[in-house]
């Protein structure tokens, strides 16, 4: 597969959430959840997205598949800018782009059986009916490690991890091209994580799927991703091939992040040294000028407060936004 | 060591249209003061329900069928709802697995944080406010004063989780039950929260029960681990026993599933084949036997005994019987 051909090009994407006050609901400020990010997702690859909680990963994913209307910027999907398309014009793209959600509790309709939840997606896109539909539901349940009796039960009868697998089955039901996986495995035990990751990899190989994979478990992100992007406070600060990121992290935030990965080994865990991030976590409502990380950076220089670092390729597709380079 | 908690033979079931779901099937363990116990295991194995039983927070169709829940000298199974309310959030702080449903959507974050302090600790509003702001800072929420006025839906997933953590710690409880407390957090904030919990453990000799799928987190925080499968504890031991000398094939399977941190080319992960047991009709004998590559005939026919395999190290697996064939465990960890 040609992993160097772009499926999606994101250019200067912004998503602001207005904060409204008073009777007239006047916008008094904006939460700059995603603030001018540009990157490419290649066909058939897995792009990992990591970063501090609240830095805008979920918002980036949701905006790319137009669950949120972007504030500005371009989303070029298979050559066409879909950023400004109307809901009607979006229709053919809706099936191609699916999402697996972060919160397995809130994302499943409590009044529907599991079979209906998965079947609904099939029905919306009028893909199959009757026996074929039933078989497809059973096949999907089996693929995500549930059994066919589960089709008649309701979400509240399942554990957190089991519910997450239902969400995955639902996303797969419509045979999409691109899936935003927003922490799809954080609720699962490691053995089922391995099952799901293998499943996502197999599906990718079989159908040429492309993933944007958001997660906090950096060892799993490294395993599944071809390339990884690191976000900090609405900005992309580093992006490169995944082995390269772990061997040669350039941005000081990436370095701190990697040093804090928990190691599943009690002796190593006791011996390791973490880079502890000092300083106040800045707010996306009123982000500081210059580099957004400077207040917590060990290497901050005067220029970091004055000028925003440019996100640039240092060679070989290793992008970083930092005045050190 | 003084015992803070002892659970004896707990059985909890849910009554559904499909039948009785036997979620917890005879769980016994104890916790000393100042100890950090990790609970790991299959999703759906009853980790959360064991703790919800202890807190007496089961949904209406759930019932404790049997067992004692001795906490600090009292059997919580026998207390009235009113007495339980004095324990929850006060003597026992709990961080729930799903922060959105456990925060009240119509109350501000500030109200939710100060309420237990006013109720249980008899603080004034002002004192409670200051203490709550301090907790918000400790869990890494910027501009805590203005955030106190906001509602849960205005927070990101990880921020809500941190509020939950602040809430559970605000009264400095004797026991902190943390159910997947850091799954929605990035590793730097996770590290900060884990340090905070460890500090509290040192400072007020609090005990911690930590449920997590992240074996790195248990390795870091816990001194003892229970491994659960199919509503039972299948292995229990010190953290080092579990990682370096595990005695149950399910534990082996868990450890084998972790991705190799040093892989260069993508290596295929090794999950445990097969399906988890149906808790409406749990299998006779060992719940793991149908998926176990070492299973013997006896595993599927006899009641499962627990074997002492070392000091404070027990495993519910026939392989530890003296007459069983010797098998070479496929783990400790790859790099050991
Ligand atoms: N619907 C919304 N309305 C207002 N603000 C929002 C909304 N969704 C997100 N935000 C804000 O946007 C910022 C980014 O949130 P987002 O959920 O994208 O973060 P994240 O990187 O996915 O974090 P986490 O790792 O905690 O899931 C946060 O400050 C959050 O409070
Ligand atoms: N309200 C309910 N009605 C019926 N069955 C339930 C209910 N709540 C939980 N169960 C069942 O009880 C079993 C134990 O669930 P529990 O939530 O304790 O799992 P867990 O070990 O915490 O899993 P996870 O790691 O996925 O959170 C599961 O099989 C689940 O399906
Ligand atoms: Mg998110
Ligand atoms: Mg649970």
UniProtKB/TrEMBL annotation, chain A:
Record keywords: ATP-binding, Nucleotide-binding, Transport
NCBIfam families, per database record: oligo_HPY, PRK11308.1
Protein name stated in the entry: Peptide ABC transporter ATP-binding protein
Family recorded in the similarity comment: Belongs to the ABC transporter superfamily.
Keyword Transmembrane helix attributed: no
A Pfam family the protein falls into: oligo_HPY
An annotated Gene Ontology molecular function: ATP hydrolysis activity
KW Electron transport (keyword) present: no
Coiled coil: none
GO terms classed as biological process: peptide transport; transmembrane transport
InterPro entries: AAA+_ATPase, ABC_transp_ATP-bind, ABC_transporter-like_ATP-bd, ABC_transporter-like_CS, Oligopep_ABC_C, P-loop_NTPase
Lineage of the organism: Bacteria, Bacillati, Bacillota, Clostridia, Eubacteriales
SUPFAM superfamilies tied to this protein: P-loop containing nucleoside triphosphate hydrolases
Chain ranges of the ABC transporter domain: 8-258
UniProt superkingdom: Bacteria
UniProtKB/TrEMBL annotation, chain B:
Compartments it resides in: Cell membrane
Ranges of residues in domain ABC transporter: 5-255
Similarity comment text for this entry: Belongs to the ABC transporter superfamily.
Keywords in alphabetical order: ATP-binding, Cell membrane, Membrane, Nucleotide-binding, Transport
Record-level Gene Ontology MF annotations: ATP binding; ATP hydrolysis activity
Membrane topology qualifier: Peripheral membrane protein
Pfam family, one: oligo_HPY
Species, as recorded: Fervidicella metallireducens AeB
Domain of life: Bacteria
SUPFAM superfamilies documented for this protein: P-loop containing nucleoside triphosphate hydrolases
Signal peptide (UniProt feature, chain positions): none
SMART domains: AAA
Entry annotated with the keyword Protein biosynthesis: no
Chief subcellular location: membrane
InterPro entries: AAA+_ATPase, ABC_Ni/Peptide_Import, ABC_transporter-like_ATP-bd, ABC_transporter-like_CS, Oligopep_ABC_C, P-loop_NTPase
Full protein name: Peptide ABC transporter ATP-binding protein
CDD domains: ABC_NikE_OppD_transporters
Taxon lineage: Bacteria, Bacillati, Bacillota, Clostridia, Eubacteriales
Record-level GO cellular component terms: plasma membrane
GO BP terms in the entry: peptide transport
NCBIfam families: oligo_HPY (TIGR01727)
């Amino acid at each position: 597969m040609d992993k160097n051909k772009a499926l999606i090009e994101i250019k200067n994407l912004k998503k602001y959430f207005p904060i409204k006050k008073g009777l007239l609901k006047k916008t008094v400020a904006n939460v700059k959840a995603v603030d001018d990010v540009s990157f490419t997702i290649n066909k058939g690859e897995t792009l990992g997205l990591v970063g501090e909680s609240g830095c805008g990963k979920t918002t980036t994913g949701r905006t790319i598949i137009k669950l949120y209307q972007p504030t500005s910027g371009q989303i070029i999907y298979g050559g066409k800018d879909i950023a400004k398309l109307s809901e009607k014009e979006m229709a053919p793209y809706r099936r191609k782009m699916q999402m697996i959600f972060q919160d397995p509790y809130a994302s499943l309709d409590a009044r529907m059986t599991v079979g209906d939840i998965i079947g609904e997606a099939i029905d919306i896109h009028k893909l199959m009916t009757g026996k074929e539909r039933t078989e497809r539901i059973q096949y999907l349940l089996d693929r995500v490690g549930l059994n066919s009796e589960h089709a008649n039960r309701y979400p509240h009868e399942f554990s957190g991890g089991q519910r997450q697998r239902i969400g995955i089955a639902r996303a797969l039901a419509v045979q999409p091209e691109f899936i935003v996986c927003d922490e799809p495995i954080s609720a699962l035990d490691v053995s089922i994580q391995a099952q799901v990751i293998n499943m996502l990899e197999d599906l990718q190989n079989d159908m040429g799927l492309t993933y944007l994979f958001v997660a906090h478990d950096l060892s799993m992100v490294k395993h599944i991703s071809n390339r990884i992007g690191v976000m900090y406070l609405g900005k992309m600060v580093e992006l490169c091939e995944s082995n390269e990121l772990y061997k040669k992290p350039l941005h000081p935030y990436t370095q701190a992040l990697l040093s804090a990965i928990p190691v599943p080994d009690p002796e190593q865990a006791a011996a390791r040294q973490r880079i502890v991030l000092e300083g106040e976590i800045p707010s996306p409502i009123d982000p500081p000028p210059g580099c957004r990380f400077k207040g917590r950076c060990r290497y901050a220089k005067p220029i970091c407060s004055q000028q925003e670092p440019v996100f640039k390729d240092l060679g070989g597709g290793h992008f970083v936004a930092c005045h050190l380079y | 060591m003084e015992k803070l908690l002892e659970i004896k033979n707990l059985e909890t079931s849910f009554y559904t249209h499909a039948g009785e779901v036997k979620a917890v099937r005879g769980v016994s363990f104890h916790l000393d003061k100042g100890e950090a116990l990790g609970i790991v295991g299959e999703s759906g194995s009853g980790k959360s329900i064991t703790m919800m039983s202890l807190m007496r927070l089961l949904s209406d169709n759930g019932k404790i069928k049997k067992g004692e829940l001795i906490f600090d000298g009292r059997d919580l199974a026998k207390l009235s709802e009113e007495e339980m309310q004095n324990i929850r959030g006060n003597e026992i702080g709990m961080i729930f697995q799903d922060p959105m449903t456990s925060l009240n959507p119509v109350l501000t974050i500030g109200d939710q944080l100060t309420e237990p302090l006013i109720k249980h600790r008899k603080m004034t509003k002002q004192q409670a406010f200051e203490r709550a702001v301090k907790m918000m800072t400790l869990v890494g929420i910027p501009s805590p004063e203005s955030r106190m006025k906001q509602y849960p839906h205005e927070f990101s997933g990880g921020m809500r989780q941190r509020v939950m953590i602040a809430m559970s710690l605000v009264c400095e409880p004797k026991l902190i039950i943390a159910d997947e407390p850091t799954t929605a957090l990035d590793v730097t904030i996770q590290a900060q929260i884990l340090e905070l919990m460890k500090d509290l453990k040192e400072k007020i000799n609090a005990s911690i029960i930590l449920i997590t799928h992240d074996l790195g987190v248990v390795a870091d925080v816990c001194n003892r681990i229970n491994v659960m499968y199919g509503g039972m504890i299948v292995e229990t031991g010190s953290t080092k026993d579990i990682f370096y000398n595990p005695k149950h094939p399910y534990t082996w399977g868990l450890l084998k599933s972790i991705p190799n941190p040093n892989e260069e080319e993508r290596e295929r992960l090794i999950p445990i084949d097969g399906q988890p047991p149906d808790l409406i009709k749990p299998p006779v004998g060992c719940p793991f036997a149908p998926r176990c590559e070492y299973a013997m005939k006896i595993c599927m026919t006899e009641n499962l005994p627990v074997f002492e395999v070392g000091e404070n190290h027990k495993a519910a697996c026939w392989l530890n019987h003296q007459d069983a064939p010797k098998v070479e465990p496929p783990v400790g960890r790859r790099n050991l």
